[in-house]
Write a structure and sequence with these properties.
By secondary structure, the protein is an alpha/beta fold. The chain contains 21 helices and 22 strands. Among the domains are: 104 residues, Formyl transferase, C-terminal domain (Methionyl-tRNA Fmet Formyltransferase, Chain A, domain 2, Roll), CATH 3.10.25.10; 237 residues, 2-enoyl-CoA Hydratase, Chain A, domain 1. The structure holds coenzyme A (COA). GO terms for molecular function: catalytic activity.
């Protein structure tokens, strides 16, 4: 089947749909960006697809295209739900069940006939989290069903009929800032967190903090009791601030100052220059709040296994965050645990160096250098650990240096739905994190080149097939850690810990004799130094941080065409 994926950007959901189609190996796939109708017409005409799938589309499809071709829109809502703020409303209304629906494009937005719909239970979480996990999984189920139905001659989709009892959803308006506004005198901590969760990633909840217009992101309830007036600063920890509410307090991890040229940063950084002397930012240093701080690192031990979680917002790891993670890893490696499992974060395992922190630095090139060295130090500690085995357990997606950091581990296991982007070139970077050692060691030189130059995502199933990772487990995020523990028990049953550790030491010594780790690092950093001095990197980073799109399909995605996709696909 010829399938055109039409999208506003190649975001995580589009990547997951792409991956599910690639895995089927029987479809010819092409990617296209919406926005320029003329280019789109040319692409559609040249490819003449059997199906146009739209996993993430903000624009209207031109009439002549949807009238001629079967166009299926993936809408993140239950049957009958319509409008651009689907998940926002679901979270604001605390809907226990939500869904994903595949609709045929029609004259009216989201009002076409229904081809498939899947529901899931919601969680107390952010919009982006639900989107990346449950919504994405339901989208893939919808796509499978749509394709099956395309082959059924007699199949008729279900027209949208609001009198049908199976249609519960309704047309909902665009959620405006006044719908999201926090009433600090009435809203309790949980209500405020729900409001911020529903606006996660974009647009955030507008408010005025200490005289500055900001958008609020990344909130959680703080386990504390305070008798202060609401909206007072009560603590700070690791860049987050805590504000009092009528019933306690909330953490706010990130803020974006409203207007240009601002972007999302740790809340304490945004407020720092704007606070009067009355508001003391050293509160955390001498208060017990640190104990219930905005903790990004968590450690838990079970028998011989130590689980180290690093829940960095958006998986981005700034210099200080890398240093804290290194210190935690070193501390754990001093204990007598045998296995150290790195579990990453709920939203992302890791996405490498922190491009926003770098953008905010007075000297971005110098900060890039510090950041890459700080993450390299973690990777070095993992690679040279002679006492324990380190396991990367990817319950969520990873990108760039985050993937390479995982590859440094002795065993890599991922959730089946995990997507990885093991490349840096689209950010204008050569990359480091010892990837020139770890990646070819796992997949060979030829695939390492394909993965790092084609700049395409790869899912856990194909990743395991090419030995990029060792295993994948079909599991929900909540059950993943338990599945990992069972998997590791089997892994050690097949070859015991002592033998594995001994093999690792021998292997490392052999590799070190052939080419010292330091040499890999030096060579990578030499390339990175040039990247950090190049305009290409600074422009790519700024486009990413300021979310500017060129509106055209990037060159590397234009190459995606049909079954001749890549070596990676063929070998998988
Ligand atoms: N630094 C700072 N922020 C990052 C980041 C990084 N390295 N990687 C991701 N983010 C942020 C995005 O800006 C976005 O922020 P938002 O909450 O304001 O929307 C959020 O994480 C989610 O990223 P998004 O790109 O929307 O997710 P996705 O699932 O569509 O794509 C990636 C995931 C990893 C492919 C993509 O985020 C990416 O290319 N990241 C950059 C990786 C990189 O080049 N790292 C530096 C080299 S090591």
């Amino acid at each position: 089947m010829k399938i055109l994926i039409l999208m506003t950007s190649f975001n995580g959901l589009s990547q997951a749909v792409f991956e599910s189609l690639i895995q089927k190996e029987c479809h010819s796939i092409k990617l296209a960006f919406a926005g320029n109708d003329e280019t789109l017409r040319e692409d559609v005409c040249a490819f003449d697809p059997d199906l146009i799938l739209c996993p993430f589309l903000k624009q209207r499809i031109p009439n002549d295209i949807w009238q001629k071709y079967l166009c299926i829109i993936l809408h993140p809502g239950i049957k009958g739900d319509r409008g651009p703020s689907a998940i926002d409303w679901a979270l604001m209304q605390s809907q226990p069940l939500w869904g994903m629906t595949a609709l045929q494009a029609d004259q009216e937005m989201d009002a076409g006939a229904i081809w498939a719909s899947f529901e899931f239970e919601t969680r107390l979480t952010t919009k982006a989290s639900l989107y990346r996990d449950e919504v994405t999984q339901a989208a893939i189920q919808c796509v499978d069903q749509v394709i099956d139905q395309c082959f059924q001659q007699s199949y008729e989709p279900q027209p949208l009929d609001y009198s049908s009892p199976s249609i519960i959803g309704r047309l909902q308006p665009l959620m405006k800032q006044h719908d999201r506004a926090i009433d600090w005198q009435r809203d309790n901590a949980l209500t405020i967190v729900r409001k911020i969760n529903a606006a996660d990633s974009f647009p955030g909840v507008r408010d005025n903090l200490f005289g500055i217009e900001v958008s609020l992101f990344n909130a959680s309830v703080m386990e504390t009791v305070t008798t202060r007036e609401p909206k007072q600063l009560v603590a700070q920890s690791n860049g987050a601030i805590a504000l009092s509410t009528i019933d306690g307090a909330i953490w706010i991890g990130h803020l974006k100052q409203v207007g240009d040229p601002y972007f999302k940063l740790p809340a304490a950084w945004v407020l720092k220059g704007h606070l009067s002397g009355a508001l003391n930012f050293d509160l955390a240093a001498n208060s017990a709040f640190d104990l219930m701080g905005f903790e990004e690192l968590q450690y838990r031990r079970e028998g011989d296994i130590g689980y180290l979680q690093f829940n960095f917002h958006n998986g981005a790891m700034g210099t200080q965050q890398c240093r804290r993670l290194l210190a935690a890893y070193q501390q754990v490696s001093l204990t007598d645990v045998k296995l150290i499992v790195l579990t990453g974060g709920r939203e992302f395992w890791s996405n490498g160096i922190h491009l926003n922190h770098i953008e905010a630095a007075a000297d971005p090139a110098a900060e890039s250098w510090k950041n890459i060295n700080a993450i390299n130090d973690i990777v070095e500690a993992i690679l040279t650990n002679q006492k324990q085995l380190t396991i990367a357990a990817l319950g969520s997606n990873a990108g760039a240096g985050g993937v390479m950091m995982a590859l440094a581990c002795d065993h890599v296991v991922a959730r089946k739905s995990v997507m990885m982007n093991p490349h840096y070139q689209s950010m204008g970077l050569y990359g480091s994190e010892y990837w020139t050692y770890s990646l070819p060691k796992r997949v060979g030189q030829s695939l390492a080149k394909a993965l790092t130059t084609e700049c395409l995502p790869i899912g856990a199933v194909r990743a395991q097939a090419i030995n990029l990772i060792d295993a994948y487990l079909d599991s929900s995020y909540e059950k993943f850690e338990g599945r990992v523990a069972a998997h590791l028990a089997e892994w050690l049953d097949s070859l015991c810990f002592d033998t594995r550790l001994q093999n690792k030491k021998l292997d490392r010594a052999k590799d070190e004799a052939a080419k010292p780790l330091q040499q890999y690092r030096n060579e990578e950093l030499k390339e990175m130094k040039q990247c950090f001095a190049s305009a290409e990197y600074h422009e790519a980073r700024q486009s990413f941080v300021f979310k500017r799109s060129c509106g055209r399909l990037p060159a590397h995605l234009r190459k995606v065409f049909g079954v001749e996709l890549s070596q990676v696909k063929k070998l998988a």
